[in-house]
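Input structure tokens:
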């Protein structure tokens, strides 16, 4: 009996969990949401994003992130974990989204856009990519990020974003006299 109850509880909890899907150019094109509608969609990260930058002398006050010593240098590190919820702020250009994962500062956002290399998924975009690192602006500072962060995709709960209202009427039928 306990096994049955436990199984039902697990099944119930699993059904409550969001069914996250990759946000793609196809979803974007099919939906044609306005900026205000996009602002109502909860985005999530598929993978961790790591940002870091060297801290200059006299710049040690860090509000979001950590200060670490790396080879005698002070480094500010920001980690945005897999599954972190984010909100659409604006579209800097066609098909590109500024998404913030910081609930206190709208200037701290990252830019995502579709990549044909990964079937149109919305990926982290950087100013420059070389083989190992990219440069992104977060807040008013430029950070480096690993090339693994390029594989952090935007995800959405498709059940919530793709609700379709269906109105069904049953025809009563018509008899010949």
């Amino acid at each position: 009996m306990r096994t049955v109850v436990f199984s039902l509880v697990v099944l119930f909890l699993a059904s409550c969990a969001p069914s996250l899907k990759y946000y793609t150019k196809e979803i974007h094109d099919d939906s044609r949401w306005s900026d205000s509608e996009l602002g109502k969609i909860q985005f999530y990260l598929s993978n961790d994003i790591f940002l870091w930058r060297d801290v200059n002398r006299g710049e040690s006050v860090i509000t979001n992130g950590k200060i670490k010593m790396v080879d005698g240098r002070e480094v500010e590190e920001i980690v945005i974990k897999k599954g972190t919820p984010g909100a659409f702020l604006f579209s800097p250009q066609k098909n590109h989204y500024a998404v913030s994962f910081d609930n206190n500062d709208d200037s701290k956002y990252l830019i995502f856009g579709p990549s044909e290399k990964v079937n149109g998924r919305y990926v982290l975009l950087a100013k420059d990519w070389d083989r190992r690192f990219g440069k992104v602006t977060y807040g008013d500072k430029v950070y480096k990020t690993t090339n693994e962060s390029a594989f952090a995709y935007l995800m959405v709960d498709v059940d919530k974003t793709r609700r379709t209202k269906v109105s069904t009427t049953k025809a009563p039928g018509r008899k010949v006299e």
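The mean pLDDT is 82. The first strand starts at residue 20 and ends at 22.
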